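From: lab user (bench 3)
To: helpdesk
Subject: output format question, protein + magnesium ion

Hello, I'm new to running complex predictions and I'm not sure whether the block I got back is the full result or only part of it. Here's what I submitted:
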Amino acid sequence: MALRTLDALQLAGKRVFIRVDFNVPLDEAGKVSDDRRIRAALPTIRRAVEQRAKVILASHLGRPKGKPEDKKKYTLLPVAERLQELLDQEIVFADDCIGDGVKKLVKELKDGQVLLLENLRFHPEEEANDEGFAKELASLADVWVNDAFGTAHRAHASTAGMAKFVKEKAAGYLIQKEVEYLGKALLRPEKPFVAILGGAKVSDKIKVLENLLAKADAVCIGGAMAYTFLKAEGVPVGKSKVEEDKLDLARAILEKAKARGVDFMLPVDHVCGAEATATAKREVVNDRAIPDGLIGLDIGPKTLDRYRQRVLSAKTVFWNGPMGLFEQKPWAEGTFGVARAMAESPAVTVVGGGDSAAAVEEAGLVPKMKHVSTGGGASLEFVEGRVLPGIQVLES
Ligand code: ADP
Ligand code: MG
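Helpdesk reply: Thanks, we reran it on our side. This is the complete output you should expect:
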């Protein structure tokens, strides 16, 4: 798969429309409370500014439903303010993303100036991938750059529909990096390749699991999904979360792993509580089986050590899904332990999934990873082996 990339284009003097992912959380006061996604888009924006393009930025924010109060709740104005600080340059803000007012602002843009359009999803045509709307957006631009990896799994007007109405198109640096690492972890992993999978449900991760079974040397399972696998093997799991209707599927996955010679590792000990609360007593169960009345809430220390050794001796590690209920301190050690092992490992380390990325961020270990994906759902779909519409249209 060859992506058209930003570096191949001459941007000077051109109207460059960059679809970014500025879908950031806002606090009570309406200020940006986590600017990771804005920062992740900076390399592409800076490149366009340095090349003296007329830069037009567009994004969605939240899920506005067309109610009048939504215009205030989901405005991108706070993002414009934060971006202005980060870029250290004036950001022109448009109060819509199409229409005569926007056309006028684009016309007045000088080379190297940056314009941010208002929330694309104020128009339902965006998500409907309406052709007329896509054309309207495209009429603002000579070049379309997609750098919104977090929305690349959606075929919306600005993430895919616009592509056929612009003269030139390219992937931004963020999408390029996501494709390089998620693609590398998936397609041509340096061996040994270890996958660590956790999270809430087996059912969320079936396709990811199946795809990884074809490539990985070892798969280390944690999180609530581990108990469905243990139960499928006939191991008692107490009151732990189990997807009863996925037991057959779990057995099928275990069989497949065996047939392919993948070392499919399940927890050999657990951290349990009588309740899934932050104040419940933390009990380490030094056995595969969990006693009646207890809930498995994290992998145990022996399990962590086994997974850790795997991570340290791997050449590629892909991690998705926390090892326990890490949002509560008593059950966080397994998740942070895996994050630390990855940080210490010389392997190409790739993290995908929204909650997993949040855990790495909380541990302060993002700089120690080779790549932490900015796309939650998009990164999983990518690792499932699906073609993302926002990326497909960038292939040459
Ligand atoms: P990601 O967003 O990284 O793909 P998931 O959404 O699949 O991850 O799973 C994350 C959630 O799984 C977290 O909220 C975490 O608390 C929960 N979780 C993990 N292990 C357990 C467990 N043993 N019991 C309850 N919840 C768990
Ligand atoms: Mg999640």
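A quick orientation on your result: Residues 227 and 299 are 11 Å apart (CA to CA). Let us know if anything else is unclear.
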